[in-house]
Amino acid sequence: MTVNAEIHAGGHTWRDLPAAQQPDWPDHEALRDVIAELESYPPLVFAGECDQLRERLGAVARGEAFLLQGGDCAEAFDAVSAEHIRNKLKTLLQMGAVLTYAGSVPVVKVGRIAGQYSKPRSKSTETRDGVTLPTYRGDSVNGFEFTEAARIPDPQRLKRMYHASAATLNLVRAFTTGGYADLRQVHAWNQDFVKSSPSGQRYEALAREIDRAMNFMKACGVEPEEFRTVEFFSSHEALILDYESALTRTDSRTGNLYDVSGHMVWIGERTRQLDGAHLEFASRIRNPIGVKLGPTTTPQEALTLVERLDPDREPGRLTFITRMGADKVRDKLPELVEKVTASGAKVAWITDPMHGNTFEAASGHKTRRFDDVLDEVKGFFEVHKSLGTHPGGIHVELTGDDVTECVGGGDEIFVDDLHQRYETACDPRLNRSQSLDLAFLVAEMYRDQ
Ligand SMILES: O=C[C@H](O)[C@H](O)COP(=O)(O)O
Ligand SMILES: C=C(OP(=O)(O)O)C(=O)O
């Protein structure tokens, strides 16, 4: 029996429910062939690794660790290169070092990487100079180029997504276990353009402190294995259900279903309908699950999500990723946290300070202000402090490249700079020095908490 058949065998399956934001594939036979091929491919991650991440996230939910989740808004096939992947990893490793050392907390590191190729969109079409075409939905679906041919959804792209994810994950595993992520490399992560930025200089001082602390421990005869490699997990939005379900496998150890396209998958703000296919699909798999919660989320919706996704109240199974907007977080978040906590749910709460703070600059660029991002994180910490709950982490869109997509930061980017290196295929990302700035500020908030 194929996994799809098995999922069907449960009776009530995602295929019987409305699935928002799915591509309008023109050729269904071609899609079926692709799905059959994907079903025969080897897993990208192991079920045991997903379990390990669930345990780590359990520590986050219990208030014993902090989650750093970040990466591109939309990964692109032509950015699967050693340089791009290394730069992104460097950024996350640097942020992780800052949060661990300055925030004095274990940091669980999860990339929006090796699978983040699909995008939900506000509109299904885009018009430029009087020409209207289907909107770009990520490299897994269609091309970014504004031509009729590129914008036609092509299921062959789902296979390219699998191969791009495999190549990325292979390099990530090599970088994180093959010496590059050794804490003694803490200075090497601070090379190139970022080194001279204010946050890069601050980081260099922190790296010297880490060096001293490690030399001290070495002199005392302590050199733990944990300093040599980094535990790093992959995650993406489980948007295109044909792909996710084709990569769902039965774990031979337990008989449970796992989506082996990534360690953690999340359901987005636009696809978290209680009677929808995404929720049904996620409820069937054992991976750790994230759900984005925007400002319109009601406590009852949050409670139903808990009931459906985490009926056993298992810490680490469910992460709520709140993305309210800086102007709403202090009003909207408290009631959700209060009611969910009062219900006995054991979720991890993390903040996505990006998606509620997007605006269009006069130049037409979609952008975000660093100060708004920071303010939403502050609001998130304030709310958790006032309720005595744990601010469990941050979820950010970032890149390791020196792009100019978000305004502000210590090495300030102005609205007039946006055109210089605006490279995102969808939403604006923090560049490396803005990401480091954020890590230092979050570490301070965490310590103060
Ligand atoms: O990343 C999130 C969404 O895909 C993105 O914000 C949608 O952007 P749009 O409003 O331009 O469609
Ligand atoms: C689409 C995303 O966010 P949201 O669902 O919160 O809008 C995203 O994180 O890529």
Structure description:
- Its EC number is 2.5.1.54.
- It catalyses: D-erythrose 4-phosphate + phosphoenolpyruvate + H2O = 7-phospho-2-dehydro-3-deoxy-D-arabino-heptonate + phosphate.
- This is Phospho-2-dehydro-3-deoxyheptonate aldolase.
- With 449 residues, the protein is an alpha/beta fold.
- It has a single domain, classed as TIM Barrel (Alpha-Beta Barrel), CATH 3.20.20.70.
- 40% of the residues lie in helices and 14% in strands.
- It is built from 13 helices and 14 strands.
- The strands form 4 sheets. The protein has an 8-stranded parallel sheet, sandwiched between helices. A two-stranded antiparallel ribbon has the order 3-4. It has a two-stranded antiparallel ribbon with strand order 6-7.
- Strand 8, helix 9 and strand 9 form a beta-alpha-beta unit.
- Helix 7 packs across helix 13 and helix 10 crosses helix 11.
- The protein is globular, with a radius of gyration of 21 Å.
- About 1% of the residues have low confidence.
- Bound molecules: erythose-4-phosphate and phosphoenolpyruvate.
- Phosphoenolpyruvate binds next to loops.
